[in-house]
Amino acid sequence: DTMRAFLRDLPKCEHHLHLEGTLEPDLLFPLAKRNGIELPAHFPQTVEALEDRYSRFKDLQDFLDFYYIGTNVLLKEEDFFDLAWAYFQRAHSQGLRHAEVFFDPQSHTTRGVSLETVTSGFRSACARAEEELHVTSKLIMCLLRHTPVEECMATLTDAQRMFEAGELHGLGLDSAEKPFPPELFVECYERARSFHPELRLTAHAGEEGGADYIHNALDLLQVSRVDHGVNAAHDAELMERLARDQTMLTVCPLSNVRLQVVQDVGELPLQKFLDAGVPFSLNSDDPAYFGGYILDNYVAVHQRFGWDAATWARVARQAINGSWCEEKRKNDLL
Ligand code: ES4
Ligand code: ZN
């Protein structure tokens, strides 16, 4: 319809996308076979059964259990390339222009897959996306907050050269929010900041965790962006702070429904953020698991909020302005 076409043609930027979360069931099973990986006995055996199970996640942890099993089928550089290239093509067909994408090195290095293998495959896909699709991108390495801090520190050491070379653009923090608050990772973020003066910092906070998680990510980790962050809406002082500093929240509507953060997209505090001047972007998080890519998230929001064209242009502009790309690229997108 015309609204979907309008939203498709908006210049969209995505800032909250886990590359491992783009593993579609129809790639998961062939990769498991190609790499001789045996899936657990309880794992659904067909694409249809798996998709059906994905539509019934109880909460974040229930999803993560599936997400980490899926991740196990990724072994070779070409697996990482195929995964990311499939994502870029699909998102491009939905009007994506720029993506800042997460990956979880620890979920691969603990299986004997080197960081170099992972990033080489991803970087090749990013280069091809820029050449062929004119989609620009940045890689953000995430630390798994359910793992010991010493392992996170070792992962940072492993990645130091790539941060220094600008091959990795930012650091994030993901996996189960509770009971792993931001304050556990202060030394990791300090260490990362020492690698490069322009290294960008973000963290998942305020999806499962309360507004205190967001305060602590800002104060203690010194992040310049907050992933999810929807629980900021419960804290008036925090809302003022986010608006004053123009700190962007990377909101993931379909993810929040699938993981039962809200029962319906209409419950998200998006109008409240707009009215308060708190910038946000709309993102797909783990599109293979949550039933939609970036445009599907825009459409779902439109169905509940019914914003006019000027408001949608403002939402798109906020996402461009909150991007970590070069000013020249931002101006091209605006
Ligand atoms: C994630 Cl939705 C979400 N939250 C936390 N960690 C994640 N890793 C992949 N998706
Ligand atoms: Zn996420």
TrEMBL record:
- Residues binding Zn(2+) are 16, 18, 204, 285
The superkingdom listed in its UniProt entry is: Eukaryota
Could you name the Gene Ontology cellular component terms for this entry?
cytosol; nucleus
Q: Which PROSITE patterns match?
A: A_DEAMINASE
- Identify which top EC class this enzyme belongs to: hydrolase
Reaction equation(s) it catalyzes: adenine + H2O + H(+) = hypoxanthine + NH4(+)
Origin species, per record, is Lachancea fermentati
Tell me the protein's name: Adenine deaminase
Compartment(s) of residence: Cytoplasm; Nucleus
Upper classification of the organism? Eukaryota, Fungi, Dikarya, Ascomycota, Saccharomycotina
Any one GO biological process: purine ribonucleoside monophosphate biosynthetic process
Q: Which residues form the Adenosine deaminase domain?
A: 11-334
Q: Which family does it belong to?
A: Belongs to the metallo-dependent hydrolases superfamily. Adenosine and AMP deaminases family. Adenine deaminase type 2 subfamily.
Q: Which HAMAP family match?
A: Adenine_deaminase
> Its principal location?
cytoplasm
